[in-house]
Amino acid sequence: MAKRKRLGGPLQDHLAPSEAETRSTASAPIARIAGETSVNAAFDEVRRELDSARSEGRLVLRLPLEAVETAWLVRDRLDPGTTEDPDFAALVDSLRDHGQRSPVEVADIGQNRYGLISGWRRLTALRQLYEETGEARFATVLALLRQPENAQAAYLAMVEENEIRLGLSYYERARIAARAVEAGVYPSTKTALQSLFASASRAKRSKIGSFLTLYQALGDFVRFPQALTERLGLSLAKIVEEDATAQARLRDRLMEADRPDLEAEQALLADFIAAEAERAAPSEPAPEAGAGTRPNRARRAPPAAAVEISPGVRLSQSGGAVHLSGPGVDAAFRDALEAWLRSRTRD
What we know:
Blueprint: H1 10-15, H2 19-55, E1 59-64, E2 68-69, H3 86-98, E3 104-110, E4 113-118, H4 120-133, E5 140-146, H5 151-165, H6 170-182, H7 189-196, H8 202-218, H9 230-242, H10 244-256, H11 262-280, E6 307-310, E7 313-318, E8 321-325, H12 331-346
């Protein structure tokens, strides 16, 4: 029996797919899936890098000036600077000529608001330039987005940034330690000093502790704390520590005196130190009649060792004077003691 011939020719060629078409149709889904996988992997890598940059504080944002809150932390400076300050004036000129080169540091506090960690001077200079010129380039600030673990980490970042860029004065260092304790960030000034100035030497922390006594006595009565030198401040702290009544005299002098600039304030403080030294100097007894020799200066008995009568308050006595000293002897303590003494007098 003869075999039947298979259908062939042009019709068969037209109906049957070519080998190239077969390969193309078979490979298309694989190529598409591979392409989509590659794109997804790239997006995942970008997302991971953005998450990493955000968590490590490497993500720079351009934020509206009004979105940044400077009062989120208690600032370690009394003010960011004025046009009378040559360093601040130089910063304003640099931003005007070259724009912002170094970002500030912020933390996301929600609802499109950001708390300022460091960069108060740069932010203030930009706000001043925007108010002065109205130019759009000054309407925003470049900011590194940080994620501090807690308030202590945020305060530490602020202090370290200022220590590197423009060192704080001893008075400003003492002030931020005291204010951080008041804000509940640290349980005590000792802990605050050890944490905020961990990289400082023990001698430096001790000096800051002495200025802490001075800050607790004067608070923000000092108008130019950035200019208060180490020598001047330590002399004032010693006077306040050794004589509780000196605190009131110094505060009264600061309140009453006209201090238009830092030179005037420095001169006032130096005069106060000289006046207190003269006040504490022992007086010479009147010479006896007919005495031909120069009398010896009267010597005061050395003060007794100070005793801590309550946390942060030490008591000592020298002759007819009683001395209270220590970090606990602040303005509130003085007021309470004065009120108690007055009530006893009335009784």
